Amino acid sequence: MAVSDLAHASKTGVSARGGHVDIARLSVLALVVALSLLPLLAGGFLLYSLSLCFANALAVLSVSMLVRYGGEVSIGHSFFVAFGAYAVAIVEHRLGLSIAASLPLATLLGAAAGFVFAFPSRRLSGIYLAVATMALALALPEILIGFEKFTGGFEGLYIAQDLIPGIPKALQRYYVALAVLGLVCLALAHFRRSAQGLALLMAQAQPRAAEAIGITRSWARVSIFTLSAAVAALAGALTGFASSTVSPNSFTFFSGVFLLVGSVVSLNGLSLPAALVGGAFITLVPTYLAQAGDWVPILYGVALVVVTLVANAGDLRRFLPRGRGR
Amino acid sequence: MTVPAGSNGLVAEGISLAFGGLQVLNDVSMTLRPGVITGLIGPNGAGKTSLFNCLTGLYHGQRGRSSFAGTPLNGLGPAQRAACGITRSFQNLAMCPDLSLLENVLVGLTLKRRSGWFSAFVPTPAQRAEQRDAERRAMAALNELGIGSAAHEKPSDLPPGTLRLAEIARAITSEPTAILLDEPAAGLNAVETRDLTRALKRLMRSDLVLLVVEHDMDLIMELCEHIYVLNFGSMIASGTPAEIRAHPDVIRVYLGDDADA
Ligand SMILES: Nc1ncnc2c1ncn2[C@@H]1O[C@H](COP(=O)(O)OP(=O)(O)O)[C@@H](O)[C@H]1O
Ligand SMILES: [Mg+2]
Q1: What is the ipTM of this complex?
Q2: Which InterPro entries match (chain B) (predicted)?
Q3: Which of A84, A107, A183, B99 could form a disulfide with A237 if both were Cys (CB 3.0 to 4.6 A apart)?
Q4: Which ligand is nearest to the CA of B53?
Q5: Which residues line ligand 1 (CB under 6 A)?
Q6: What's the CATH superfamily of B1-85+176-261?
Q7: What are the pLDDT digits (tens) for A192-248?
């Protein structure tokens, strides 16, 4: 059972019809059941790590959405993740509301921020769009420190409110993050068959043909970026809730790069297993490799190169004679 | 041929198009009347696809005007012309590899679909009904062209003939008021060509504008009631199949071609 197995399951699960979809579905269901029962066995630190992992998995999904449906790469999605996390913290500090209110609010604000960025950049694509998103990620720490009154500056803010008072914190974090991640994966599976989902895939693969049936490139770019930013902000809101704190050093330029790494590692999959692989990679690898210290970015780099090569090898298989590997 | 103001149909007048120093279209006019299958023929490189692209808004000629049902089209892009009810197929296959054949046809209905962003993520009864309805229409278009059995296959698993017919299915599924087909029979075998010819004849209604671009004379002669002939970017003849067959310039162009080949 390796990365490629999960990713394969995810690919068929998202798109194909036929016999082995059911096996893929059943194994995802088994995974969900196992994760739901895990708190019966596992202790606090593992649950804490896993809730962060779920939140990161969602952030990775937001980048993968942009790749799959928009054909675009963002280096700066940590901006929208931070946006969601700070929205939760600020709503709690200023309005005294829990994530029951701030989770949907953060998502809407993330969508709004995504739209505000995407609309003027709707003619950008490829490397130009990636560089523009990089500017967002680079500006983020300055913005957070500049608006110290709201964001708490270097110190950041605590997120203390429970969703349901009385239930242990670790369980709340774990189940909220798992439930949101699961629901987003279901929503994305539905989206794949929707009119908008089909239109976006068409616009990406055949832009001229898409225009000829009324799907404009700027509509496609603005839509998918807005959606992706909304999911990123939702992921940020979960990250804030799961870690009980937000501060500028959780959202550096590298967080944005790592999200992209996570997306590449998960082969840009949009299923639960794929997202978990990406999320686990960017959460657990640095935690357990903390001893490696300065080596973490290098290990990331190596992993990125290896995965890219493996993923491309998969693409190259398509050029082999028919009937092989099918 | 001058066109009285307010006439319906798809009308192009005096279109000229150049790429750098290359004059691709030279003062070309044509009138596509509703209820008539119009053909556009000409040797390779004559400018058929370019004229087609001018009609669908992909290219904009340096001179000339076009209008549809009396409404000027100048300055409108492809998506806006699609919204006017003009659809097209592409000479180069334009299938999305991630979508099944049915879904590739289904996207042709995008402008007609009414489900909002919320129901794109959350299934609702109304959305399911709308989805079923759209799928039924796309399926009907596939069946009309005799390729319904391939509906759930991926484009990469299908022969080019089937994909070309699917491309046409996508153009007709939204029940447009003008359909422009660029070399629809290229790569089709005899059976598929016959299916295509039949489907296009069945499709014809009194309010439909239908243009078929081909360099295959036989298909055009069988299918079309009115034919335009383009050569080196200029319209050299127009008329009924019988008139075209007898036209000295057309004979020269096509016999010349044969002599070369
Ligand atoms: N986008 C373009 N840029 C430059 N030249 C073009 C372009 N599109 C078409 N042409 C030129 O216009 C001429 C006519 O091409 P086309 O319209 O495709 O002919 P046909 O469809 O009749 O075979 C060709 O010489 C072709 O090279
Ligand atoms: Mg052509």
Answers
A1: 0.86
A2: AAA+_ATPase, ABC_AA/LPS_Transport, ABC_transporter-like_ATP-bd, BCA_ABC_TP_C, P-loop_NTPase
A3: A84
A4: 1
A5: B 19, 22, 24, 42, 44-50
A6: P-loop containing nucleotide triphosphate hydrolases (3.40.50.300)
A7: 999 999 999 999 999 999 998 989 999 999 999 999 999 999 999 999 999 888 888
